[in-house]
Amino acid sequence: MTTRILPAVGDADAARSVTTLLSQLPEAEPAAPVGDSTQLIDTLARLAGESIEELPEVVLVHERIGPVPALELIREVSLRFPAVGVVLITADASPGLFAAAMDAGARGLVTLPLGYEELTNRVQAAAQWSTGVRRHLGTGGDVFTGPGGTVVTVTGAKGGVGTTVTAVQLALAAQASGHPTALVDLDLQTGDVAAYLDVQFRRSVVDLAVITDISPRVLSDAVFSHDTGLALLLAPGEGERGEEVSDRSARQIVSALRSRYDIVVIDCGSQMNGANAAAIEMADTAVLVTTPDVVAVRGAKRIVRMWDRLQIRKAEETVTLVNRFNRNTEIQPPLIQRITGTRMAGTAVPANFKELQGAVDAGRMHELDPRSAVKQALWALAGELGLVKPSPGAESRGGILRGDKGSIGGRRRKGGTTGGGG
Questions:
Q1: What pTM does this model have?
Q2: Are strands 28-30 and 3-8 parallel, antiparallel or unpaired?
Q3: Vertex 20 angle, CA 19 and 25, to 5°
Q4: In the predicted model, what is the mean pLDDT of residues 325-341?
Q5: 285-290/181-185 β-pairing
Q6: Are 376 and 406 in contact (CB under 8 A)?
Q7: 86 bridge partner residues
Q8: For labelling, which of 116, 154, 215, 380 has a CA lying 20 to 30 Å from the CA of 164?
Q9: 165-200 pLDDT tens trace
């Protein structure tokens, strides 16, 4: 049986060494090495999207892979692609690291410098395990979740640009269309999702921060079930406790949510920290919300550049949403696109806070009038991002989502601009 092997090695010299040795293994089919954690996850997700059988039996993770640390990467691969055997390549053969690697989901550990016999034994053992798991799950495709649900992060160029309103309405649109949806508040110090949805809660994302293995039961205990059907994972009531949520715990939380819900919408606020940076890096889609004014657009540019410097996300992989749009304003979407280098959402959100004020003040954002241009625009954005399932017979330019009268299609405003708001 041929064993397909995908190495993840960031160092060029180490990659050549690994590739050379893999080519000598019996019945091995090594792929070209991937250079970082993002490329590895993207490659596995693409292969899983084509067919589960296209996934490699074995993934080798070098200890110096980045930007995600090796053990965190192993944990994410194990959660999202549970029938892939992961082997860690490391110079540290201590019992402590071995135990940590096994806890993360690795099927073996190979020490540096690489030896032919040890590498052969570990790869063969991981491949046999992978084959056994796939055979066991062969008649139960629902158990294997592949790449998992879709994760969308919403970040503000600065405070007050409509980040939380956008995140809440995207999640409501996804849930109303029939997708099991989770809404997460990772604006850890000043999160307002609970206030916008009239929620009194005891548990928050902090309760998951110290748990190394988030089981479905543990996750369900921390999640608040809202009347709309949304699963809410909220920011702590005491803002200082937000520091307890590390980038590592954020990765575990997002991976656990992704394995259980079709859609995961994360409100990242406007202040960057390790936790929401990890979420943005893991996201399938990162939405950046700005208003068409100089200060906000400068903030958007600053955030995009920071993400690029920290290797969190490239500008062209970010979708910018213009909120409080006015066709007469001096700063128009094409100019914002040139300044930030991002992709612009096809939907712009009009400036119409009067539509929102009653729902915001009452903490009943889920009861926003379906005729609201703000709601219609944000639900149109949800359709644009692929978060909603159109009802049977829905027309291409609109449609009614189950359980709500809000249109998922953009409504034309006077002068040909796309209507919407938030």
A1: 0.69
A2: parallel
A3: 90
A4: 92
A5: unpaired
A6: yes
A7: 59
A8: 215
A9: 999 999 999 999 999 999 999 999 999 999 999 998
